[in-house]
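Ticket reopened. Same input as before:
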Amino acid sequence: MSHISPIIWQFLVKWMTNFALFPPEASKIAPQMDALYFFMVLISLIGLTIVILLITSFSILYSKKRHPVAVQIEGSTLLEATWTIIPLGLFLIMFVWGSLLYFRIYTPPANAMNIYVVGKQWMWKAEHPGGQHEINSLHVPTGRPIQLTIISQDVFHSFSIPAFRVKREAIPGRYTSVWFEPTVPGTYHLFCTQYCGTEHSHMIGDVVVLSPEDYKKWLEGSTSGASLAQNGERLFSSLSCTACHNARPDARGPSLASVYGSRLTLSNGQQITADDAYIREAILNPSQHTTQGYAPIMPTYQGQISEEGVIALVEYIKNLDSDYRVQQTTASTTLPPDNGGKTTRTPAPQGMVKQ
Amino acid sequence: MSDAVTIVTLPDQSTARIPKMSYLTKENGLLSWLLTGDHKRIAILYLISISFFFFIGGSLAGLIRLELLTPQSDLMATDTYNKVFSMHGIIMVFLFLVPSVPATIGNFLIPMMVGAKDLALPKINLLSWYLYIAAGIMVIYTMASGGVDTGWTFTTPLSTHYVNTHVITTGLAIFIAGFSSIFTGLNFIVTIHKMRAPGMTWFRLPLFVWSNYAASILMVLGTPVLAITLVLIVLERTVGIGVFDPTKGGDPLLFQHLFWFYSHPAVYIMILPGMGVISEVVSTFSRKRVFGYTAVAFSSVAIAVFGFFVWAHHMFIMGISNYAMLIFSLLTMLVAVPSAIKIFNWAFTLYKGSITFETPMLYAFGFMGLFTIGGMTGVFLGSSGTDIHLTETYFIVAHFHFVMVGGMLMAFLSGLHFWWPKMTGRMYPEKISQLAAVVTFIGFNLTFFPQFILGTLGMPRRYASYPPEFQILNVFSTAGASVLGVGYLLPVLYLTWSLKYGAIAGNNPWQATGLEWQVQSPPLTENFPEIPIVDHEAYDYEWLERQKENEVASVG
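Engineering reply: fixed in the latest deploy. New output:
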């Protein structure tokens, strides 16, 4: 093989050793997705083979040399019905199969661990419930369903993990979610797949899948001292939310304990379920989301809190199951601290409030 | 027989002469071209201008492939790369693919095929070309003054709030190009309805006319939506009206809906006229009526109708509701069926034919193979589950290049070769053009097939740099692109050569049945010496035979 240039040779060797047709399967959904994918590849190959066979065999059999005079044929209802119904049937199978997968991928199970992801030009920020922050990487344990609640702070981005076969658009002003259950420890690509400007191709990172033990170690090693909900609590008091949402009998705002997941009636009579998206909207755009019985006096926080800050607040309100903490916080903001006042006086964590 | 037929059959090719009087020689001088109302001259003007833009768009594609030869962004800065792929997309979609077959081949042939002297509105036709040129000049100006880096999709809020490039100029350019396309579509619809020759019933129309009719409906109904969307983008950028801005209560997804409401049907605007070309070519070179004429005709209309109701399949991962997904995915599957019908009908047209393999036929075979792959991979994306993994990757890039380049461009080249003798009166050189068709086919597959694998592996589109493990397939793709480049340059050279040195074609070198082939090449300005009376079906080769016998009889 000496006559082959060494560069080409190296290239070919590299190709033969690294050749892959599909990415590693590292999530529970991946083999299911691949099954449909290979079914479609198979059907396509069969279809393509039929078309190629028809064209080549007719070209040979009925070339002008062999078949100088064409026989005029109008058509054939039977044949035409065949190639209408068979493809239609196959496409419908793919439609049903694909839709089932789609519902599975975008419907998180109730017990999923929620991680928030914020996309912005040009990085991914992940906020773990335990308060761990990451940029352009995501650590997740195997064997546990993980839900990502994704939002963009500026333009459209798209959070894509090919090894998990999942992808979800990060949209400005709106939460989207996707879930997966990692199965194989390792490091996988994380891409932004929606074109988002200059550094689009550098908005990439690693998804690190750890065994549950390693994950626990990682959690302990990267803690920032306060959980996401605690950060939210600090923000809650530093933004003076407690001035109204304090659960006192004369409070000007509704109590937020156990509000998450409950049915609310708004002042315009609309019935809604208080989910992440609703809480976010109610903070940023309160005049449109006044609970029945309360005056629309809440100021908007649009432009004053970063998406990470909103996430901390949402997480705090989600975990707020009694008014006790709120009352403690209120008490300690009005009275001088006597027990260290852990939740007051601490400046809000950097980056949470827009400067 | 002889009483109803008024079509003059001129002597055959071996004794043919270039006619002294034709649309090319009727008037001379630049002004006679720039102020012409003749659909054939306007078609030639379009042909020259879209070829110009094709080669600009193609050179940009070459730059993209060169940059992607290595994983790092080393040929150009990421910003430059973003501008290059944006301009490539904008030029290829709006200035080449949308007008390609309708405005050139369609403009030239539709009046002749229906037996009319011109399009219904010749001045509007010329206006449409001027609008196209105005749009083209604006795009060139944009490029010269720094370009635009939004991608051809102008995604908000990136395009409205975050980039500092020439979004407004480009948006207005496409707005204007849109009117050019609306006028062409309008002209075709009116002509096909009102100007058919006596006896030319709807089901005697060549399938090329049917498919252009379907595409025209899409142009007329779809393009205004794009125009409005672009105006909203411009208003959002200039005065901040906030329709798409979430901080002002707008919805960025609304932009996606509006944009794809045009841009998905636009795909059919691009492919349907190409399908029409394939019907003509396959029939002519197998000497047979198109198998299941009505099915093929109605499948064009079905594609046009369903084509309007599938746009949200571009948004499966963007948080549309699960139920909306179900409907759009189902309709996407339905729109795939007429395409499958067409492929099989063309294949069966060959059955018991008498097939020859001239260049147009080779391109048509290329089309059938590549369009089958392009169509099938479209089903991968229409099925919502697999779409999640494959969308926004190179899989989608490969898919639409198989349809647009492997399909439409192949069809365009097929049609250009097929009707070249009619347009110019001279034949293209056969051997070298067959070679070009084969080179194009090989180059195309080498360029775009590896991209399916890249996409499945997860490589995102619009990346100036990429992880090193994707390099090998990218090297194949770039190598293929250079072969493809040669395949596209060859026709320019030999077609130009043939203008002067090509063999004289005669009026019907392919012995085709269309009305356009029954008159001299190049045709007279008024197409027909007198309006023909049509007494036969489309693709009636027996009629053509009788015509010839009749001719011999009357001469003898």
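Residues 20-64+77-225 of chain A form a domain with the Immunoglobulin-like fold (CATH 2.60.40.420). The first helix of chain A runs from residue 6 to 18. Please confirm and we'll close it.
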